[in-house]
Amino acid sequence: MRRTLALVLMVTMVVGFTGCKAKQKDQLSDAPPPPPVPADTTVDMSYQAPPPAAPAYVAPQPAPAMGNTYTVQKGDTLWSISRRFYGDPKRWTEIASANGIDPNTKIIKVGQVLTIP
After folding, report:
1. H or E segment to which residue 13 belongs
2. Residue 70 pairs with which residues in a beta bridge?
3. What whole-number distance in Å separates Cα of residue 79 and Cα of residue 95?
4. Most exposed residue of 25, 84, 89, 101, measured as fewest CB within 10 angstroms of its CB?
5. Nearest to 91 by CA among 99, 79, 76, 103
6. Could you tell me if residue 103 is left (phi over 0), alpha (psi between -120 and 50 degrees) or otherwise beta?
7. pTM for the full model?
8. pLDDT digit string (tens) for 12-48?
């Protein structure tokens, strides 16, 4: 009796699983095929390297020789001119006094010619 029951269960399981697989195969075969790829399709495989990046650091221009003159450019300050010529921005007062500039106002104008002592 146990053997018969076991045999019936095994046959039922095999048939049940086989039926599921058959249904899955049928469902898959009902799906439409993928669209065809056109024969004239080409892929551009050429590689162009990106342009080189701009340098992150731009070296300062060498300072002109002492005793020269300097024409003030847009954005210049006595502090920046002193740093350029002397390497020490705190020496701006030397440029101011050599050119008769009031140290309290520190006003310089674009195009003004300064004597660098």
Report:
1. helix 2-29
2. 114
3. 9
4. 25
5. 79
6. alpha
7. 0.45
8. 776 666 655 555 555 566 778 777 777 776 767 777 8
